[in-house]
């Protein structure tokens, strides 16, 4: 099952977890969209620097600290994803509450671990 995923906090640097996640999610044949501060490509995925109103996003996976997430609350909620994954270091109880109020599931987990253990 293809779970179209938006990676927020995408990096062009190979050693960043967001970069590794983009590659790994693609290796599981999921469609990937990416948003980051610098434009570029990670393999076949373009990193967008403007917020785009993507259709049918299943999962948003976050690689931004809680303070930086605040600017994206409304955007993420507007996409109506099925779930948001809070990777290590992105935990944000304030955002959990907003997601609950909008009937969006969330997980505090590592995207890479979820993929490796077939729980994605």
Describe the structure.
This protein is an alpha/beta fold and 120 residues long. The protein is 31% helix and 22% strand. It is built from five helices and seven strands. A seven-stranded mixed beta sheet has the order 3-4-2-1-5-6-7, with helices on both faces. α1 (17-27) links the parallel β1 and β2 (32-35). The chain starts with a strand and ends with a helix. The model has no long low-confidence stretch (mean pLDDT 97).
In short:
With 120 residues, the protein is of the alpha/beta class. The protein has helices spanning 17-27, 66-69, 73-79, 93-101, 111-116, and strands at residues 5-8, 32-35, 40-42, 45-48, 59-62, 83-86, 105-108.
Quote the average pLDDT. 97
Question: How many strands, what sense, and barrel or not for the largest sheet?
Answer: 7 strands, mixed
- Report the sheet-strand fraction: 15-25%
Instruction: Write down how many β-strands occur, each being a DSSP E stretch of 2 or more residues.
Output: 7
Record the strand order, biggest sheet: 3-4-2-1-5-6-7
Could you estimate the helical fraction of the residues in percent?
25-40%
Shape: globular
Spans where pLDDT lies below 50 across 5 or more residues: none
Which series of helices and strands comes N to C? EHEEEEHHEHEH
Write the layout of secondary structure elements.
Blueprint: E1 5-8, H1 17-27, E2 32-35, E3 40-42, E4 45-48, E5 59-62, H2 66-69, H3 73-79, E6 83-86, H4 93-101, E7 105-108, H5 111-116
């Amino acid at each position: 099952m293809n779970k179209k995923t938006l990676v927020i906090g995408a990096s062009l640097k190979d050693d960043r977890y967001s970069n590794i996640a983009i590659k790994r999610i693609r290796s599981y044949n999921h469609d990937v969209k990416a948003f980051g501060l610098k434009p570029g490509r990670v393999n076949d995925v373009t990193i967008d620097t403007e917020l785009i109103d993507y259709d049918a996003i299943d999962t948003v996976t976050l690689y931004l600290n809680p303070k930086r997430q605040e600017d994206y609350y409304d955007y993420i909620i507007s996409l109506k994803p099925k779930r948001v994954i809070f990777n290590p270091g992105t935990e944000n109880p304030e955002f959990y509450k907003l997601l609950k109020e909008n009937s969006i599931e969330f997980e505090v987990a590592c995207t890479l671990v979820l993929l490796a253990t077939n729980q994605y």
